[in-house]
């Protein structure tokens, strides 16, 4: 910064005299002026403030680092900043508040000497923050956010300053940075009494009693009735500025709030949580934006939204693309900001914000909406929850969301489990089997979104905890060895098929025998195949399930099995990357002698999915697509138990157990009977497939739902075959 122009002409001028002259000239304006309406920019006040700033900066350069010059001491001892904050509050002359914000920002930003520790600095700083406008669109927003940015940068450099700016206290815990400059501050204090006195400290501490009473609460969260919610300080100022309609102001405020909450010092982070309304203010704004979304918002519009970024502002044309788009964008932008905040914040701050969001938004607002009886309300809230799941990526916030939805239980489920153990989890799974196909479809979409999140407890809670002991396999009783020879297993498989009422010779010309012949003649039992021939047998098992009369893809030039392999490989690699840190076993758990009376229960989630699968020939096309998509998502997980349970056709099942393959066998048996009752079945099926592909105009024909279900069934079997194939390639775990 160059020296003031007068100093360049007269180097010997007394800096203190010039400084006091400008200050007196400024104060004389208030004694002499009679026109209260003259804008401040038409007076000499901005010029005098600029000269005072230049003198302070120039003076500092003339003194050794850390030494206080006479002009700075004059500013501190004569409480110039206190006076300016009062003048700014009065907004006289008009525009004075803007000038005060600018002067404070420039002094704190350009003067290198630590200032915020001094009572005569941080007290007027607090006052300036307190009368910052809460009205959106304030004329001083630009200056306010610049002032807040300077304070955040200073706190980032020295986290111990946080206590001064928020409450005006002395340090709770001295930091190494704070200790380094303590001797200089103490020497200056003896000159002008510029730091808070012990009496003032006690007064501040007593005045902060409501905050201290919160220390015993979980995570030291601030209650909704706390006076901290209403107190104006740096936190409230930044949150208010985050709501600005001026995108640049809002963005700068959000960036500086992130800077503030990422402070690395444990004591400062704890102080921020205990002695500010940060968590409440951030969450309150999130809930306000959620409540501002019109209740008439179309669930389909909600689900059509892509993930948004808090840094990007949408244009007005985009916001008008459908009713409620602007409100939805505003909510999800702030949710993305909260997600980013939790990711970047000190763990103490992140945990506190996460807990507050969980209690206020998840439990306080979302849960009652998800448990309501109104079908339209369930649809809308489920769509919102799905979009929320898609948006959240921060591990701490994702953990809170998963706990909210699924609970923390890790023990296997039993048929007698009470729904009250975790009512929301139970109800959401029940919604997958709702009388309303729309609700079932929306909830299945929610679970698919959940299963794609990188959190181990999701798949464990829904499925894996019930497969841990592999009790779906017929195991030996105590004192007996498990039968595992090739001849025994082949005999049992054949016997099981022959005893199945659907596996008879009633349909000699249906092609069903071809399906049966596709079954490998030498299965290797429940152990996972390791040879290419074994993989091929499994692939052929799924590809051969659907009889020839019900196959139509070969008649059309479309994506076949090879395309499914390509897609399955990509999805499997993505899934494997997500679970790489979960320490899953590479091999199934060895079977142990078991109680033959112990019943296997696949769990609530798989039960509902399997029940849905048995009705694939009678369900709407879209619902079938979503249901099979969820099952495919589960089949992609590289856990040995989940793999064998969903993709091994040759398990020696315990009595009463079912797997995905056995459910498909039952569906095929049902299909064989229906084929006999529908005339011209192959031709009509081919027509429906061509309609679904958009090759011919849609027209209603009899048994439309059945034909659409058969198309989905054929494609699903090809998809399962592809998944089984890629899971045994060198790219993935064996």
TrEMBL record:
Ranges where the record places region Disordered: 176-228
Taxonomic superkingdom: Eukaryota
A Pfam family it matches: DUF5917
Polar residues: bias regions: 176-187
Residue ranges of every copy of the FHF complex subunit HOOK-interacting protein C-terminal domain listed in the record: 602-694
Similarity remark: Belongs to the FHIP family.
Protein name listed in UniProt: FHF complex subunit HOOK interacting protein 2B
Organism: Chelonoidis abingdonii (Abingdon island giant tortoise)
Lineage: Eukaryota, Metazoa, Chordata, Craniata, Vertebrata
Name of encoding gene: FHIP2B
